[in-house]
Design goal:
Blueprint: H1 3-18, H2 25-36, E1 41-44, H3 51-61, E2 66-70, H4 77-81, E3 82-88, E4 94-100, E5 107-111, H5 118-121, H6 123-130, E6 132-135, E7 138-141, E8 147-152, H7 165-168, E9 173-176, H8 182-193, H9 206-217, H10 223-234, H11 245-250, E10 251-253, H12 257-273, H13 281-292, E11 297-298, H14 300-304, H15 309-320
Parallel strand pairs: 1-8, 1-9, 2-5, 5-8
Antiparallel strand pairs: 3-4, 6-7, 10-11
């Protein structure tokens, strides 16, 4: 796998997904960046914007095993990870056999993840971080590659269980799916209500995705670029010397070291997508929003002002460039 092949395959994947997903080019690219960086994605948007369709389309184009979990308040951890069941043989002997849950797939869609109880949400923690599942005292490795793409509705919060900070931090990116414009909405309606069916072709498989991820990890990062990523993460902490005035005033606590890992890991993938052999400042600045927006939290005053973390990331980027 070479840089030229990497950029070509990514372009083919984006074009094929774009045949179904209209007007979501940035979301498609950022999702692919996250997948190739070996991370998990949290998609946030109102119902009907194609979040589930995006995940399903990606699995088809990448020829990966797909599994969908609809999170509800009565969902149990065993419904996700699997459980040991009593199996009877022909001769009458009985023994326990492990029945894998839907998490045993390459791409797992956790639909409306904030509707399940914290106990069930935590069943995904080990899978997302360690790529393993432990049931009945035995640890099993999940299929590789393995990605979790979770969705949540930011509007209707009744009967939901907001994700704890520890679990939010395990998502490499948080992507905000926006409402389409007039032209894009017309294309979506016309495409989904017509008689023509779109047949997607498989562009890459598990081996290709693994090779692309391996190549991305080999991309070098300059000392100044690493310094920028480090200062970006530190600037989200209100007690840091790099924090702008807005962060000092409105932030409760800042991003963890995983924020820096996300910036560099995703920056390597983006550099390859752009046909470059090294990570640039523009990669870090472009990825700061999806990589950091869910990793630091506002205090009461910031929430009362109606601020969002994206506004503070803009202040941080302007501040560290001075």
């Amino acid at each position: 796998m070479q840089v030229e092949d990497f950029a070509r395959v990514v372009k083919e994947i984006e074009e094929e997904i774009g045949r179904v997903m209209v007007g979501q080019r940035d979301i498609i690219r950022q999702t692919l960046i996250c997948l190739l960086a070996g991370g998990n994605v949290l998609l946030e948007g109102v119902p009907g914007l194609g979040k589930t369709m995006l995940v399903r389309t990606i699995s088809q184009v990448l020829s990966l095993e797909f599994s969908r979990i609809q999170f509800t308040p009565d969902l149990m951890p065993a419904d996700i990870a699997g459980t040991n069941i009593l199996s009877e043989e022909v001769g009458g002997s009985r023994h326990f056999r492990f029945q894998p849950g839907p998490v045993f797939a390459n791409i797992v869609l956790a639909d409306e993840i904030n509707r399940a109880t914290p106990k069930t949400q935590s069943a995904l923690l080990e899978a997302m971080q360690e790529k393993t599942v432990t049931v009945g005292g035995k640890t099993r490795t999940l299929p590789q590659p393995f990605f979790v793409l979770a969705t949540q509705n930011p509007l209707e919060m009744e009967g939901t269980y907001p994700l704890p900070e520890a679990q939010m931090d395990r998502f490499l990116f948080k992507l905000l799916v926006k409402y389409p414009g007039e032209e894009e909405l017309g294309s979506i309606i016309n495409m989904t209500t017509g008689s023509d069916e779109i047949t997607l072709k498989q562009v890459a498989g598990a081996d290709t995705i693994t090779a692309m991820s391996t190549l991305a990890r080999e991309i070098p990062v300059g000392e100044r670029v690493l310094e920028m990523a480090t200062r970006l993460v530190l600037a989200t902490h209100p007690d840091s010397e790099y924090a702008p005035e807005s962060v000092q005033k409105y932030v409760r606590y800042g991003a963890s070291p995983r924020g820096g890992q996300a910036l560099i890991g995703a920056g390597k993938v983006r550099a390859l997508m752009e046909g470059r052999y090294n990570v640039a400042f523009e990669d870090i600045a472009e990825l700061a929003y999806p990589a950091l927006r869910h990793r630091f939290f506002l205090n009461f005053e910031g929430e009362a002002q109606g601020l969002v973390t994206d506004e503070l990331i803009t202040d941080i980027l302007q501040h560290i460039k001075k």
